[in-house]
Amino acid sequence: MEDEFRGVVRRHLMAEGLTEADLSFLDYRTCHDRYVGLIGDLYEKDDYPARDLADDRPANTPCVIMVLESPHKLEYWNVENWEDNPQPEQRLQTPYPANGKTGENIRNLILDHEVFKDISGGSDYGLILLNAIQHQCSLGDAPGEHRDDLFKAGWADFGEGDFDCRLSKVLLDGDIVVNSCTSYPAKLHALVDVAIQRRYPAPDSTHHPVSWDGGSDWCLERRR
Asked: Which residues, including other chains, have CB under 8 Å from residue 51's CB and lie 6 or more apart?
C-alpha cells in the first residue's frame, strides 16, 4: 500500500503548501504488524522478546491483538533529541510498531492494566501489535499537525480495506482484540472500532499506551 499512501500524502502536502523537504522525519515505508512474544515475558524488558511478522505467529498460542492507529517517529528513527536534521545512520533498517515510550509502557504496564488483568491466563497469551494504517500518518511531525487528517484520508482511500484484510488473516479462534488507538481529538479510535467489529464483535477499548503511565483511567470500555 506504499504507492497508495504516497498518493494520499502528495495530495495533502499540495493542499497544505508543503513539500517533502519540509518534513525531516518523513518515511514512506510500511511498518508491518508484529508478534512480539508472550505477555508474561514483557515486563521490564528493554525490548520485545520477539519481533516476528504477525503472519508467523504461533498457531497454538492465543493472542491479544492490540490495534494502534499508525506508526510515528521512533518506529522509523533511532533519535533521542529530535534534532531537525536526522542523520542517515539514525534511520532504522526495519520499522517496528510501538517503539519508544509506547513500547516501554506496553512492556511495563500491560499486566497492571484492568483490561488485561481480566483475561484468564493473560500472561500466557501472545501479543500482536497491529497498526490500523501501516504508514506514518504523522509524517514524523507533531501528531496534531498532519496525523488525523492523513489518517482519515488514508482510511477512506485504502486503509480500511487493507486493515480488514490483515485483521481477518491474523485473527484466530481464542484471540482477543483490543482497540488502543488514540481517541482525541479526531475520534480515530471510534473510526477503527467500527472496522474491528466486522471481524470481532466485542473488542475491548483502552487509551493509547503512550498515556498509560499518566494516572488516568486507562480503560475506555470492556465488552467481554
From this structure: 34, 36, 96
